[in-house]
Amino acid sequence: DGGITQSPKYLFRKEGQNVTLSCEQNLNHDAMYWYRQDPGQGLRLIYYSQIVNDFQKGDIAEGYSVSREKKESFPLTVTSAQKNPTAFYLCASSITGTENQPQHFGDGTRLSIL
Amino acid sequence: GENVEQHPSTLSVQEGDSAVIKCTYSDSASNYFPWYKQELGKGPQLIIDIRSNVGEKKDQRIAVTLNKTAKHFSLHITETQPEDSAVYFCAASIVGGGNKLTFGTGTQLKVEL
Questions:
Q1: Which of A6, A45, A90 is facing B100, going by the closest CB pair?
Q2: What is the pairing mode between strands A109-113 and A54-57?
């Protein structure tokens, strides 16, 4: 089946550790996105990539890093600099990064601090 | 930047009734407005979207209306069913914004038997 796969579904991190969330898509989409979701808030954009080897900061990029070395993969690293990392993280993709393209989401990774 | 407000935050209806969720946006340059449905523990699923050159769009029991002058858009669900129970999010995208979406804060819809 074509879609977006996020792994793992649940992730636990100790204080001071970096952790990487995986996002893979087999939709042949050019653009990929990372959002953070907190209770009672909408989704907030962390980083996005319109094409391989290129990415831009979203609204809340501090404490996060990404890479886009392959079209199908867009991993997100939550660094120790992110002071409040506990959240539900969602990855999305769209055919292109141009305007008005529907974004399709994976089923998320829930990150918790031990 | 763009700001999207969504109301109500919770909505309870009887099965078979209609449900309406409203969103307002701040930037008149916004031109794309999708709606997502999110079930517990899942990612959001696109259910309908509308572009600024259209005032209304319908897909079976779901419709979206857009009022560009007032800068608001609404989701209408008719003949609600228990499986419609979920959190619904509206979003907006600005012209020249590179397909970045700004989301509302969500509406928890509960359809009661």
A1: A45
A2: unpaired
- Which burial class, exposed, middle or buried, applies to B113 when counting CB atoms under 10 A from its CB (0-12, 13-18, 19+)? exposed
Determine, for residues B36 and A42 on separate chains, whether the beta-carbon distance falls below 8 Å. Answer: no
A19 in Cβ contact with A78 (< 8 Å): yes
- Measured between alpha carbons, how far is A107 from A4 in angstroms, rounded to an integer? 8
Instruction: Indicate yes or no: CB of B1 within 8 angstroms of CB of A59.
Output: yes
pLDDT tens for A5-63 read 999 999 998 888 999 999 999 999 999 999 999 987 889 999 999 999 999 999 999 99
3-state secondary structure B33-84: EEEEEECCCCCCEEEEEEECCCCEEEECCEEEEEECCCCEEEEEECCCCHHH
